């Protein structure tokens, strides 16, 4: 009985060992495919980052090296299909020159969705890479905006979801602290306008001339914000005050991205 039991047990153990070996080989193969997929994605991400860097330079702007991430998994199947779910581009410390005025964007995040690029385009480096939709979110620092207004002691920030201003102003020989909020509008052309219409000052003399001087100051700091040209044909749609700065939201559709040109 013992010999017969041992004879039956040995084939079972061999079968289990074969199954374990097969599973290990499958796991190794999957691991190699994942590594190859990520390596290919990394090569494409570096190529896109280089193209973005060139585009920024053409606009006489500066930024830290672009951070690019191609979304969706696996990457290689997207290459074969000629369509990519998402390409995210992160830019930091973006600075540009517009009519001599420096505009700083500590962050500019671009999200391209449903990006079409044929396999032939990838192979040859010729042709168009087109994103169905592109969304961008950037931040204009309050320090940069205050520098544009060029008024001594002026400070900007967010208060109750609105852009707030505080500044010392000389009115009729008195040094007063002016406070108030701005109306922010975005035109169809994507131009951003700040209008300070309701400024107040504690201790303001109750005479028409004092009110006129305060209104004149409000007009002097009401400006059209000189934004730099945004990449990928992005057009500003909304501006919202946040604690860290003015959040600019922009979008575009059917945008060519020459990442492999």
From TrEMBL:
Pfam families: LmeA. It comes from Micromonospora thermarum. This is DUF2993 domain-containing protein. InterPro entries: DUF2993.
């Amino acid at each position: 009985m013992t010999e017969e039991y041992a004879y039956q047990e040995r084939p079972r153990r061999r079968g289990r060992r074969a199954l374990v070996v097969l599973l290990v080989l499958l796991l190794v193969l999957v691991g190699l495919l994942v590594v190859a997929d990520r390596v290919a994605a990394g090569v494409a991400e570096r190529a896109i980052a280089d193209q973005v860097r060139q585009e920024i330079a053409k606009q006489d702007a500066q930024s830290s090296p672009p951070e690019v991430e191609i979304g969706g998994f696996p990457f290689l199947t997207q290459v074969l299909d000629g369509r990519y779910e998402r390409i995210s581009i992160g830019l930091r410390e973006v600075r540009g020159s517009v009519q001599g005025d420096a505009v700083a964007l500590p962050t500019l995040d671009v999200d391209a969705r449903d990006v079409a690029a044929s396999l032939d385009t990838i192979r040859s480096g010729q042709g168009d890479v087109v994103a169905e939709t592109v969304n961008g979110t950037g931040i204009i620092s309050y320090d940069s905006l205050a520098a544009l207004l060029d008024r001594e002691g002026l400070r900007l920030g967010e208060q109750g979801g609105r852009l707030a201003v505080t500044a010392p102003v000389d009115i009729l020989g008195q040094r007063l602290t002016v406070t108030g909020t701005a109306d922010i509008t975005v035109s169809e052309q994507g131009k951003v306008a700040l209008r300070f219409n309701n400024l107040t000052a504690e201790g303001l003399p109750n005479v028409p001339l004092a009110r006129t001087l305060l209104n004149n100051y409000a007009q002097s700091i009401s400006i059209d914000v000189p934004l730099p040209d945004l990449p990928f044909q992005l057009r500003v749609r909304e501006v919202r005050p946040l604690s860290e700065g003015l959040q600019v939201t922009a979008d575009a559709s059917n945008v060519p991205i020459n990442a492999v040109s």
